[in-house]
Write a structure and sequence with these properties.
This protein has 255 residues and is mostly helical. The protein has two domains: 66 residues; 175 residues, no CATH class. Helix content is 72%, strand content 0%. The protein contains nine helices and no strands. The protein is elongated, with a radius of gyration of 30 Å. The two termini are 37 Å apart.
């Protein structure tokens, strides 16, 4: 029973029993022989029942309008979800490109590589992307999708915070921290990619949707998209492998 339905029931019962109490009170006052008084009480009872019916009908109509509105918002957000996921993937690729240059600058000495000071400018993810995710998260009937989107939003927020830290503290930055950021970026890319099937699905609103688990090869495919083939990046891939084994890259129940 919804909150509005409970409210309607309480109001209806209150009006009904109040009217019954009025009639009983009149009877107790020895006015049972006063047909006009009884008729007035009976009419008050009928009016109470009718008012309760109209109130219930009005609340049901309001609930239906709200449900239809939520469904339209959900359908609209889901229709633009492929674009939002593509923007996340593009954001990951651009961020990884910047992080690669920072990592190679900081760790290059171990591989005999000397590079000029890299650009540490952070990339921004359009706010409309997170708004889209939040709309679906609030209205999707699919628990698995809600959990995956919740994980994705959390990972993006942590990643953005870490990238801002690199921008602020670059002169004191350690390449291992940058490696963790790149590993996080790969996890975000893989998680976003795993939602494309759901985003493109056009079946019923209430049909249960099962997401594929995010396996090791899905996360590693992000490094291919990042063009990270040089041996200098092998420690980062090892870090990702270790984190997957410890269930730290994404939610543990996806493995």
């Amino acid at each position: 029973m919804t909150k509005n339905e409970r409210l309607t029931l309480i109001v209806s019962n209150g009006i009904f029993f109040g009217s019954v109490l009025l009639i009983l009170t009149l009877i107790a006052m020895d006015k049972a022989d006063d047909w006009e008084t009884l008729a007035s009480g009976f009419m008050a009872l009928c009016a109470a029942v009718w008012a309760a019916y109209l109130l219930n009908k009005q609340i049901q109509q309001a609930d239906k309008h709200e449900q239809n509105r939520n469904k339209r918002l959900y359908v609209a957000a889901r229709a633009t979800l492929p674009l939002a996921l593509s923007q996340v993937c593009a954001y990951c690729i651009a961020s990884a490109e910047s992080l690669k240059s920072i990592y190679m600058y900081l760790a290059g000495g171990e591989f005999g590589i000397v590079l000029r000071t890299p650009d540490v400018t952070t990339h921004d993810l359009p706010q409309t992307v997170l708004t889209n995710f939040e709309t679906i998260l609030e209205r999707t009937p699919h628990d698995m999708v809600a959990d995956r989107l919740s994980d994705l939003i959390a990972m993006i927020q942590v990643f953005q915070s870490r990238c801002e830290g690199i921008n602020r503290e670059f002169s004191h930055m350690d390449h291992n921290f940058v490696a963790e950021c790149i590993s996080n970026c790969a996890a975000i890319y893989a998680t976003s990619s795993s939602l494309f099937d759901y985003a493109r699905d056009k079946t019923q609103f209430d049909r249960e949707f099962i997401l594929e688990p995010i396996m090791f090869d899905k996360v590693m495919s992000a490094y291919f998209a990042f063009s990270m083939h040089n041996e200098i990046f092998e420690p980062i891939k090892s870090l990702t492998r270790r984190d997957i084994e410890r269930n730290r890259v994404v939610n543990a129940d996806t493995f």
